[in-house]
Amino acid sequence: MKIFHIVGARPNFMKVAPVLNALSVRENVQQTLIHTGQHYDVKMSDVFFHELGIPSPDVNLAVGSGTHAKQTAEIMIRLEPIVIERAPHIVLVYGDVNSTVATVLVCAKLGVPVGHVEAGLRSFDRTMPEEINRLVTDQLADLLFTPSEDGDENLQREGIPAEKIFRVGNVMIDSLVRLLPVAQNALTQKSKNDGLPERYALVTLHRPANVDDGVTLKGILESLLEVNRDLAVVFPAHPRTRQRIADFGLNPGQLRVLDPLPYIDFLGLQSRATVVITDSGGIQEETTYLGVPCLTVRENTERPVTVSMGTNVLVGRDREKLRAELSRVLAGKVKKGTVPPLWDGHAGERIAEIVVGQQSRARSQVGST
Ligand code: UD1
């Protein structure tokens, strides 16, 4: 059985690793890993492959940055001949990035089955490019692997037949479970060397809605400078955010602005943070698993289970709300959460079981006709 995995951006890498591992112990499975090159910086890509133990990609499409249309189209143009030539039995895509939607568009038209890992998430906000990617991907994919019940409900409401939907849990948490002990150990060493404060707020920001507008970004930086008076702000900045700070001539003052961090360093920092302030999707989930308070600088989330069950609070861009929630955290009144069902480190194995099982069923049906 020939399986393709297509990844392109940083949040894909921690999701593909457990699925690759789980499939590698299956018989008669031949895996091909294709990197679209959407993320290309060493700190946004290579270091994740290394730390997560992902083999080097068999193919790199090297598309690089561009407008959404250009990036998506470039991936489609470069991927199509490879899919035609190598004829995989199934292609697995991850998350909600441009690489995900580009792949499903190519495969659906070639009649190649696609499995979508992390299906069914919805923010109901179509101004987010990721929401468009999720809607299109889920309509076209053949197997939909969801992390939580809300995912199943969203898909069924959109008319996806129940037999295509498989609730497997959260595959990103598989990587976290595996590497948390390594990350905590690395952090202990690092804090000794780097003088990391005992208590700190860990910050990440990269959503276009937050960083691409000068007035909005200035407002957020001012809020963070306010936070920094009570709690040291550690801010590993996405290249896009760093660029925008420079473009708009903004001054991050006393904030500890760092380059993007490798997976293990970042996980270690998350696990010991007093609070995490973010607009990322995956970090809302990781903090819920870790039981660390998370203040999300967005009006909505496609991961509502992190709010209903976990430690996540949506603060939007409301400075008063951020201030109020931060005071609660500093006063020790943190939101106590629980870990959602099936976020247990075994989602990759469940996906492997289903992918291999579906293929043998398809083969036996062909055999019986
Ligand atoms: C992409 C995903 C987003 C995900 C994020 C994680 C889409 C639509 N968005 O957003 O869902 O949360 O990745 O990081 O797919 N850049 C570099 N080096 C790199 C990559 C990007 O400098 O290795 C800079 C470039 O200036 C580029 C910009 O970042 O134009 C944006 O990169 P892009 O891949 O378009 O989107 P992200 O904001 O990273």
Itemize the secondary structure elements and their pairings.
Elements: E1 2-7, H1 10-24, E2 30-35, H2 42-52, E3 59-60, H3 68-86, E4 90-94, H4 98-110, E5 114-117, H5 129-140, E6 143-146, H6 149-157, E7 165-167, H7 171-194, E8 200-204, H8 208-211, H9 214-230, E9 232-236, H10 239-247, E10 256-258, H11 263-272, E11 275-278, H12 282-290, E12 294-296, H13 305-308, E13 312-314, H14 319-330, H15 347-368
Parallel strand pairs: 1-2, 1-4, 2-3, 4-5, 5-6, 6-7, 8-9, 8-11, 9-10, 11-12, 12-13
Helix pairs in contact: 1-2, 1-7, 1-15, 3-4, 4-5, 7-11, 9-14
Bound molecules: uridine-diphosphate-N-acetylglucosamine (UD1).
Uridine-diphosphate-N-acetylglucosamine binds at residues 9-11, 38-41, 44, 65, 96-98, 129-130, 206, 238-240, 243.
Description:
The protein has helices spanning 10-24, 42-52, 68-86, 98-110, 129-140, 149-157, 171-194, 208-211, 214-230, 239-247, 263-272, 282-290, 305-308, 319-330, 347-368, and strands at 2-7, 30-35, 59-60, 90-94, 114-117, 143-146, 165-167, 200-204, 232-236, 256-258, 275-278, 294-296, 312-314. It has 15 helices and 13 strands. Helices cover 51% and strands 14% of the residues. Strand 12 (294-296), helix 13 and strand 13 (312-314) form a beta-alpha-beta unit. The chain has 2 domains: 2-170 and 343-368, Glycogen Phosphorylase B (Rossmann fold); 179-330, Glycogen Phosphorylase B (Rossmann fold), CATH 3.40.50.2000. With 369 residues, it is of the alpha/beta class. Bound molecules: uridine-diphosphate-N-acetylglucosamine. Uridine-diphosphate-N-acetylglucosamine binds at residues 9-11, 38-41, 44, 65, 96-98, 129-130, 206, 238-240, 243.
